[in-house]
Design goal:
The chain is 29% helix and 15% strand. It has helices spanning 47-55, 86-101, 156-172, 187-192, 207-210, 212-225, 248-259, 289-294, 307-315, 326-330, 334-340, 370-376; strands spanning 19-21, 24-26, 30-32, 62-69, 105-111, 129-130, 149-150, 177-182, 230-234, 267-271, 276-278, 281-283, 298-302, 321-324. Helix 9 (307-315) links the parallel strand 13 (298-302) and strand 14. Helix 3 (156-172) packs parallel to helix 6 (212-225). It is globular, with a radius of gyration of 21 Å. It starts with 18 loop residues before the first strand and ends in a 9-residue tail after the last helix. Bound molecules: flavin mononucleotide (FMN). Residues 15-344 form the NADH:flavin oxidoreductase/NADH oxidase N-terminal domain.
């Protein structure tokens, strides 16, 4: 009998190399970015979320669950999940179990939208709360957010405490940790950025003052669940929701230095500045490099990455992990597709935020299923990015 010569195992691409995050062994670097999907009816997570998340779970992977309301005033979009009632905690448990059974770590992103809301979402139709009473300037989307009410100084500790309790609840539900949502123009970002913070108390004015709310939230959450179960998401360069800073580099640096003061804080997750288009292709601008260099812990980069750019940034040490949003949304087996350099499903933007429990949610085909499925799929996905 003739044996074929032993083939050398193909070297793993950088994205599929193992990584030790704190005490956790990850088997690859392809993280599911937090993605609001608006399918938690009545703010209660639903059984279909167990299907959706476990489809995307891999042994040794890291999933970050969608932004989740910390309190009744935290909501700004329809059918977002909460983590402030016992019913919500219980509803998360089977979802977390399903992900754990597949061997992934699972973090919950905890948020408060602040002024990115309307009176319709607020208890008793009250005004959304914020760092400011300045309303978001309506843009082309025709979405009009209500004029917010500026929080009084003495009300702020309660909001900080809501974050703390939400983190504790997330751990009770079984999550491995929480990601504090300090990005994208929501409440924490409203305090941090000078376009949305016009306060004159100790939470406004200087950079230190504007970051005070964020730091108090992180303090409280770290004290409650431990630094090794806390990640923080920041987007100093993003101007979403009329929320931008006149000196994003100083803001990002200040926050990273603050994060370094928590020994063992698990990760810093930063969103890239907008993409540059170079020769017709989107290129990562590597605008997060100063923050990456300053941060002592695990650094996750996200925003616009594909396989090639992800491999590049892991290989050159710009990021430890890369979080994928839209590509992971449309490809439940994204790490496997990256491994094989297989073609990707196109994501369907029109169903990002719709409420169906299957369509555009759990019906994106896996690689192996693709051939037989494509003929019978009820709708085709079009990439409108
Ligand atoms: C449908 C959708 C929902 C999103 N929801 C959240 C969210 O809940 N929390 C968050 O921090 N970012 C959210 N984002 C931003 C993504 O996490 C990610 O940063 C963004 O999509 C850019 O990464 P990508 O180019 O890999 O998609 C969302 C993006 C999309 C497309």
């Amino acid at each position: 009998m003739v044996h074929a010569p032993a083939k050398e195992a193909a070297a793993a691409i950088p994205l599929l190399k193992p990584y030790k995050m704190g005490q956790q062994e990850l088997s690859h670097r392809v993280v599911l970015a937090p993605l609001t999907r608006c399918r938690s009816y009545g703010n209660v997570p639903q059984p279909h979320a167990a299907v959706y998340y476990s489809q995307r779970a891999t042994r040794g992977g890291l999933l970050i669950a969608e932004a989740t309301d910390i309190s009744p005033t935290a909501q700004g979009y329809p059918e977002t999940p909460g983590i402030y009632t016992q019913q919500q905690i219980e509803a998360w448990k089977p979802i977390v179990d399903a992900v754990h059974r597949k061997g992934s770590l699972f973090f919950l992103q905890i948020w408060h939208v602040g002024r990115v809301s309307t009176t319709d979402f607020q208890p008793n139709g009250q005004a959304p709360i914020s760092s400011t009473d300045k309303q978001i300037t309506p843009d082309d989307s025709h979405m009009v957010y209500s004029k917010p009410r500026r929080l009084r100084t003495d009300e702020i500790p309660q909001i900080v405490d809501d974050f703390r309790v939400a983190a504790r609840n997330a751990i009770e539900a079984g999550f491995d940790g929480v990601e504090i949502h300090g990005a994208h123009g929501y409440l924490i970002d409203q305090f941090m950025k000078d376009s949305a913070n016009d306060r004159t108390d100790q939470y406004g004015g200087s950079l230190e003052n504007r970051c005070r709310f964020a730091v108090e939230v992180i303090d409280a959450v770290v004290a409650e669940v431990g630094a090794d179960r806390v990640g923080v998401r920041l987007s100093p360069y993003i101007d979403f929701m009329d929320c931008f800073d006149s000196d994003p580099e100083a803001l990002g640096s200040y926050m990273v230095q603050r994060l370094n003061k928590y020994p063992g804080l698990l990760y810093c997750h930063m969103v890239e500045p907008r993409m540059a288009i170079v020769e017709g292709r989107r290129k990562i601008t590597h605008g997060l490099l100063p923050f990456r260099k300053q941060f002592n812990g695990t650094f996750i980069a996200s925003g616009g990455y594909d396989r090639e750019e992800g491999n590049k940034v892991v290989d050159d040490g710009y990021a430890d992990l890369v979080a994928y949003g839209r590509l992971f949304l449309g490809n439940p087996d994204l790490p496997r597709r990256f491994e094989l350099n297989a073609p990707l499903n196109k994501y369907d933007r029109s169903t990002f935020y719709t409420h169906n429990s299957v369509v555009g949610y759990t019906d994106y085909p896996f690689l192996e299923e693709k051939k037989e499925d494509s003929a019978t799929r009820p709708h085709s996905h079009t990439n409108q990015s």
